[in-house]
Amino acid sequence: MRPVVCIGETMAMLTPTGQVPLAEATELFYGVGGAESNVAVGLAAMGVQAHWVGRVGRDGFGTRIVNELKAHGVGVSGVEVDPERPTGLYVKVPACPAAGIAESSVIYYRRGSAASAMDAAMLARSSVAPLIENAGLVHISGITAALSPDCLDMLTALLAAPRNGRIITFDVNWRGPLWTRADKSVLRTLANQADIVLVGADEAVPAFGTTTEAQLRELLPDPSAIVLKNAEVSAIALLHDGGRIEVPSLAVDVLEPVGAGDAFAAGYLSGLLSGLDQRSSLRRGHLSAACTLTVPGDRGPLPDAATLDRVLGCSEAEWAATRVAPGLLDCPALAEGAA
User: What pLDDT, in 10s, does the model give residues 283-307?
Assistant: First the structure.
């Protein structure tokens, strides 16, 4: 299996402890997170050789990011350190019903960040070019396209370059505030040049103007697969040959919703890289997302390989009856004596 390269911005992350409103917090948990590096970490945890390519500031946040990714087995030889621009920062605001905060949210501080200076020239540098040349898959997202014109140029150059056996996956990862002053039509152009596109149903309307499957395929005719994620309902693979494969979502006792999309991407892509078919890869994506939904961080651990194989291979009825909760994977296929 050839390595995977994930390109994008990773930021320092702060969130109040104790499930209290941000304005009342006296302590903040300190971690790191970014869509593309989350996928890299998820892939590494599944045994895939994964590298993250990006830029950080010459500050403690940047050092923490590099050290954290290394600790999770992600290659960081393609990371550049900017001596002047800072590392981006985001704050996760937890849900707090007692204070009238029904849903968790995220606040970003990324304008002028080190990552916003990524450009097409970076792809040709000696620390990055060999990683891309040897990769079997390169993963990017729509977030990067909105960071700066230089970042958009980088994605455009990457997608226009000869594939040489690589596939490029594009996760739309819609972030509304990033597009208030930018032309979102570039998302359609970039997505259509990718080999596989991942998009949430809630993202498809602001990004492409529709969630209708036929219209999405008309807007994006070239990718070999468009994976449409309908949150707690299902995930659907719309194939280039007209095929359609739908896998229902699992029943999950949700603890924290942030990070599930990246976990789904890591699970789904790891399935494809392992030679699984679309249905099994979608199931792997669902299970990865479900495990993440039951932990407070950006990634929940998958079950061991034997357990995973039995769940992925279970019947439709057993899949429909499966439930995931913190510390619990309840699937009929795992019952003693199950085939």
Answer: 999 999 999 888 876 667 788 888 9
